[in-house]
Amino acid sequence: MTDAGEDVECPTCAADPAGAYVYAIGSIAPRFPSLAIERELMQATTRLDETGLTDRQTLQAVLSKRENRYLARRICWVFSVERVETYILTPRDPADLDLLIEALRPNPAPTDLDVVIGVRGPVAPPGMCGGLQLPMVAFDQLYSFDREALVGSIPRPDGASDKAFRPVAEELLDRVLQLAGNAGTSDEHRALNYLAMRSPAIYARTAEAVARNQALSAVETRPSTLGGARNILDVVFTYRDRGNDGVEKALVRVDVTEQFPFLTSRLAPYYDR
């Protein structure tokens, strides 16, 4: 039994390899698990020239120093989806602690995004994160970017101006991120999150639809009949004409059998049978 005020180590989050895979989009924030860790960080801050730095910049500067790495290991790293605290993160490889520190941006913006890929483990014990009890995720990959950079990196379709394309890309990204309960553990949500991050084609197709006076009316996921021994999902995007109410559909297949999803087919026209 661990006392609620006692610091708790969590080597690789004790993740069960057979546990649920996680492919989630959200944001990372540090939390002090105890008063002692908070005070220890304040002591480390006195050794830093923090003139003109904000609290966030100071925290990032302190944790970035190699001699303060012991503090980064003891801080609780909380991952939130749509501003709801969802997971406690730990690196499967201790060297990946650097990725968590890099995610602690010195000048954060509300549109910053973090992507975590890993395995969900058990719920954290009360003493690990100051009483916060959330599922722990041992991550194998973590990358961070801001929304503007993501949208700006998506190739525009031929003939589309940045002014016309950017709102379409942003709206599609919002639609995926706001799907109810998207904690990135179900096969459907892992497939959608993967497409949002790694498939420029869905943005290009949606921009082309808007240019033809069509609106994205639905995004559906369902098991593919071509899966066989693999767990493959069909992801169908439905576009409805604003004038005559006609419907066009496009389908892409995503293999979610293992931890890292991948495409098994390119986005192509789809017709109901």
Task: Give a verbal description of the structure.
With 273 residues, the protein is α+β, with helices and mostly antiparallel strands. It has two domains: 11-146, no CATH class; 154-270, no CATH class. 30% of the residues lie in helices and 30% in strands. It has helices spanning 35-45, 55-64, 69-74, 97-103, 147-153, 162-177, 187-198, 200-211, and strands at residues 21-31, 76-81, 84-91, 112-123, 135-146, 214-223, 232-241, 247-255, 262-263, 268-270. Strands 1-2-3-5-4 form a five-stranded mixed beta barrel. A hairpin with a 5-residue loop joins β7 and β8 (247-255). α6 crosses α8. The chain is globular and about 65 Å long. Residues 1-18 have low confidence and may be disordered.
In round numbers, the mean pLDDT is 85
* Helix and strand composition category: alpha+beta
Strand order of the largest sheet: 1-2-3-5-4
Helical amount = 25-40%
Query: How many helical elements?
Result: 8
Proportion of residues in β-strands? 25-35%
Instruction: Tell me the domain tally.
Output: 2
Number of strands: 10
- Helices and strands, in order, run as EHHHEEHEEHHHHEEEEE
Layout: helices, strands, pairs:
Elements: E1 21-31, H1 35-45, H2 55-64, H3 69-74, E2 76-81, E3 84-91, H4 97-103, E4 112-123, E5 135-146, H5 147-153, H6 162-177, H7 187-198, H8 200-211, E6 214-223, E7 232-241, E8 247-255, E9 262-263, E10 268-270
Parallel strand pairs: 3-5
Antiparallel strand pairs: 1-2, 1-4, 2-3, 4-5, 6-7, 7-8, 8-9, 8-10
